[in-house]
Design brief:
single chain, about 120 residues, alpha+beta, 434 Repressor (Amino-terminal Domain), 4-stranded antiparallel beta sheet, 4 strands, globular, Lambda_DNA-bd_dom_sf, XRE family transcriptional regulator, DNA binding
Length: about 120
């Protein structure tokens, strides 16, 4: 099982549950769609249009649209860049679990230690 939780400063806590992606009963495509919907929700909560975000990222509006609609495989780096463009104070945590036991965790805190 892989759990991914993205949080954003000042994010509407009532909607935060839509950001939780849990893999126990999800296919790869379902994961991708859930994550991309969460990214779109974060952008909308930030008050940015796709065009405005595209300008901040120096990409096309079409690129942002494809990411948000899970129409293209994007790299981890692309997703991180997207999140930084929304708010440089985002946090993420990814936990890898086998039979309910966490075997590894990656998080924003870990990345800060590695810098």
């Amino acid at each position: 099982m892989i759990d991914v939780l993205l949080t954003k400063s000042h994010y509407n806590q009532a909607r935060l549950s839509s950001i939780l992606v849990t893999s126990s009963h999800m296919t790869e495509q379902t994961h991708r769609k859930a994550l991309c919907l969460a990214l779109r929700d974060l952008r909308e909560q930030s008050g940015l249009t796709q065009e405005q975000l595209a300008q901040k990222l120096e990409v096309t509006q079409s690129w942002v649209s494809k990411l948000e609609n899970a129409q293209h495989d994007h790299t981890f780096e692309s997703i991180i860049a997207y999140l930084y463009a929304l708010n440089p104070e985002f946090e993420f945590e990814i936990s890898f679990r086998i039979n309910g036991e966490t075997i590894a965790t990656a998080s924003t805190d870990l990345l800060k230690l590695l810098e």
